[in-house]
Design goal:
Helix content: 25-40%
Structural class: alpha/beta
Largest sheet: 7 strands, mixed
Distance between the termini: 54 Å
Shape: globular
Number of strands: 12
Bound molecules: pyridoxal-5'-phosphate
Length: 404
């Protein structure tokens, strides 16, 4: 077993050996520019890119012409939201999203707010779900886009995309979803779910970092986007720049592998996730699950360990690579905005740990992790006067801390 045990698959995943193997020739022998139209080198590179485009399209029920390759889901989210905002601004200036989106969506929306767009941040329920009803009530004649994530990267909650898509279709509003965490983990079909724009990235599905895609619907309706990156007109003019051929080949292969292994792999990972949660609950009191109990990603477990500070907990179990709060905010000691928005109080939010299991997680690792978490929480609680007082039945809110 390799230490520390990697349980941070929401942040990134290693490249699958099968994916790496598929990529290798495209760094050296098959090195052509996919945009070179005049010779064999270019044609072979282009053929490889088109194969990858088909692989990516197939998993989400799209056609290959609807896939635009980008440098990351951060760029895909920017292109989707800014691209629609710029192209449809005559129609309206209102965009709807949720307060627990990834920063790549939230910061893009904040930037648009400064340019005069109006953004509605929908309320989410206690599990972090956006309901179709809430979306319906927020849509106005000025609304041009609804952007709601497929699955949350911190708490793993899966949104009712089909219902939200239906409302958007009825109202004639474009629907974008950041599906980075859901792709290859739970079935997504852009036709059945009424999705017009969808962001995904290779490195969260065992592909390489720095390559991603945006699905852009071509009919019913045909979505038009204003480009952010100009120069050369690659990717149907929506995203110029020489294509990252080896990366795209790896992305295609990673998606193909995900498509064929999703069901079986999901069941195995979920079993391990449930085992971890069961062991934690059996051995520890005052532990709380964050996110939806069933509508959640198979590899996600987000837990608040009351009376234990998340950062101290992580320091106490350096043999585990986990995350407290989201990867993007873990540099600061602000409680996670996701937990805050689903109604987890500040105290409990500071005690939360995200476990992310994935393809290479083993039962041995989970048993090791469970032991480590349980012993560390017990040790820290033994040192905690707050935990002791709570156990003695003292209502902590009634305590006069200053002694006056
Ligand atoms: C990781 C992540 C992103 C960013 O993807 P990059 O390819 O790393 O830019 C966007 N959204 C969600 C939900 C993510 O988990």
């Amino acid at each position: 077993m390799r230490l520390p045990v990697y349980l941070d698959y929401h942040a990134t995943a290693p490249v699958d050996p099968e994916v790496l193997q598929a990529m290798m020739p495209y760094f050296t022998e098959v090195f052509g520019n996919a945009a070179s139209r005049n010779h064999e080198y270019g044609w072979t590179a282009e053929a490889a890119v088109e194969r990858a485009r088909q692989q990516v399209a197939k998993l989400i029920g799209a056609t290959e012409k609807e896939i635009i390759f980008t440098s990351g889901a951060t760029e895909s989210n920017n292109l989707a939201i800014q691209g629609v905002a710029e192209m449809y601004k005559e129609k309206g200036n209102h965009i709807i999203t949720s307060p627990i989106e990834h920063k790549a969506v939230l910061d893009t929306c904040h930037a648009l707010e400064k340019k005069g767009f109006e953004i509605t941040y929908l309320p989410v329920d206690h599990y972090g779900r956006v309901t179709a009803e809430v979306v319906r009530n927020a849509i106005t004649p000025k609304t041009i886009l609804v952007s709601v994530m497929a699955a949350n990267n911190e708490i793993g909650t899966i949104n009712p995309l089909r219902e939200i898509g239906k409302v958007c279709k009825e109202k004639g509003v474009l629907f974008h979803t950041d599906a980075v965490q859901a792709i290859g983990k739970t079935p997504i079909n852009v036709e059945e779910m009424g999705i017009d724009l969808l962001s995904m990235t290779a490195h969260k599905v065992y592909g390489p970092k720095g390559v991603a895609a945006l699905y852009v619907r071509r009919k019913n309706p045909r979505v038009r986007l204003a480009a952010i990156v100009h120069g050369g007109g690659h990717e149907r003019g929506m995203r110029s720049g020489t294509l990252n051929v080896p990366g795209i080949v790896g992305f295609g292969k990673a998606i193909e592998v995900a498509g064929r292994s999703m069901v079986e792999e999901g069941a195995r990972i979920q079993m391990l996730r449930d085992l971890l949660w069961e062991k934690i609950q059996t051995e520890l009191d005052e532990v709380y699950l964050n996110g939806h109990p069933t509508e959640r990603l198979p590899g996600n477990l987000n837990v608040s360990f009351a009376y234990v500070e998340g950062e101290s907990l992580m320091m106490g179990m350096k043999e585990l690579a986990v995350s407290s709060g989201s990867a993007c905010t873990s540099a600061s000691l602000e409680p996670s905005y996701v937990l805050k928005n689903i109604g987890v109080g500040e105290d409990l939010a500071h005690t939360s740990i995200r476990f992310g299991l994935g393809r290479f997680t083993t039962q041995e690792e989970i048993e090791f992790a469970a032991k480590k978490v349980i012993s560390t929480v017990k040790k820290l609680r033994d040192l905690s006067p707050l935990y002791e007082m709570a156990k003695e039945g003292i209502d902590l809110k009634s305590v006069n801390w200053t002694g006056h």
